[in-house]
Write a structure and sequence with these properties.
Number of helices: 1
Number of strands: 18
Largest sheet: 15 strands, mixed
Helix content: under 10%
Shape: globular
Radius of gyration: 19 Å
Structural class: mainly beta
Strand content: over 45%
Length: 242
C-alpha cells in the first residue's frame, strides 16, 4: 500500500539531469514564445528539444530545436490556433479494486467559464545509434529537486508554460485519496492562478508531507527559476492538472 502513496508523489517530479540557470520567459514577434536554457550533466545522448500538440484539426503543430554539445537549447513556439485551445472539464470519480477504494475529487473553479488554454510540455529526443537503434524521448522540465534520484521532497517544484485566452481566476483543489482496511492516504493539489491573455508561467510546488497527506500548490509566477531537467513521467492520470 505504501508504494501507491509513493507513486502519487512521483507523478509531478520524477526527473534525472539538472542545469544551473534559466532565462526569463520571452515573448517575441507575432506573440511567439522563446525558451532557452542549458541542461547540465548532459551526456550527449539527446540532440533535439521539441513540442508537439495533438491535432484537433487536420494540421499538427510541431516545433523543434537542436540541443548543442554542451546541452544548450533555444526553441521558439508560435501561439496556438483557436482550435488547439481546450476548456477545462472537471472529472471526479470513485473506484474500488480489491476492496481498496480510490477517490478523485475535482473541485477546480474557473471564474470565466469561457476560458480556454493549452499547456505546453517540452521533450528531449534521443535519436538512437547504430548500436542502440531504438530512439526515444523524455520530458524536459524546469524546476528544482533536492534529490534528483529519490522521491520528491517538500520544497521541490516545477514550472510549466501555459497559453490562456482570457484573464481570469482559477482556484479550488484536486484530491486523490485511497482508503484500505489498514490506512488512508491522500494527495491534495490546491490552485490559485491569476491568468493573463497569452503566455503564462505556472508553478507546482510540494508544500507539505505528513500524516499520510501530501499537499501541492499551483500558482502563477512572473519569471522562470530553477534548473532544466531531463526526466521521466512515471505515472499519469492519478491527479488531473491543467
Amino acid at each position: 500500500m505504501k508504494n501507491s502513496f509513493l507513486l502519487a508523489w512521483i507523478v509531478l517530479f520524477s526527473v534525472a539531469a539538472c542545469s544551473e540557470s534559466s532565462n526569463p520567459v520571452e515573448s517575441i514577434d507575432e506573440g511567439s514564445l522563446r525558451i532557452s536554457g542549458k541542461i547540465s550533466n548532459f551526456d550527449g545522448h539527446f540532440n533535439k528539444v521539441y513540442i508537439s500538440l495533438p491535432p484537433l484539426s487536420s494540421t499538427q503543430s510541431y516545433f523543434e530545436s537542436e540541443i548543442t554539445t554542451d546541452g544548450s537549447f533555444d526553441i521558439t513556439i508560435a501561439p496556438p490556433a483557436d482550435e488547439q485551445l481546450i476548456k477545462y472539464i472537471p472529472r471526479s470519480r470513485v473506484s474500488v479494486i480489491n476492496n481498496d477504494t480510490t477517490f478523485y475529487i475535482d473541485s477546480l473553479r474557473i471564474a470565466d467559464e469561457e476560458l480556454k488554454y493549452r499547456k505546453y510540455g517540452l521533450s528531449a529526443h534521443n535519436p538512437g545509434s547504430i548500436n542502440h537503434r531504438i530512439s526515444y524521448s523524455l520530458p524536459l522540465v524546469l524546476g528544482e529537486r533536492k534529490d534528483s534520484i529519490g522521491l520528491p521532497t517538500v520544497g521541490d517544484y516545477l514550472i510549466t508554460y501555459h497559453y490562456f485566452n482570457r484573464q481570469t481566476k482559477i482556484e479550488g483543489f484536486q484530491k486523490w485519496k485511497i482508503v484500505t482496511s489498514t490506512r488512508t492516504g491522500e494527495t491534495v493539489t490546491n490552485f490559485n492562478i491569476n491568468t493573463k491573455v497569452g503566455w503564462n508561467l505556472v508553478m507546482t510546488k510540494f508544500l507539505s508531507d505528513e500524516n499520510d497527506k501530501s499537499i501541492y500548490e499551483v500558482t502563477d509566477v512572473d519569471a522562470e527559476s530553477g534548473e532544466w531537467m531531463i526526466g521521466t513521467n512515471m505515472i499519469s492520470g492519478i491527479t488531473q492538472t491543467l
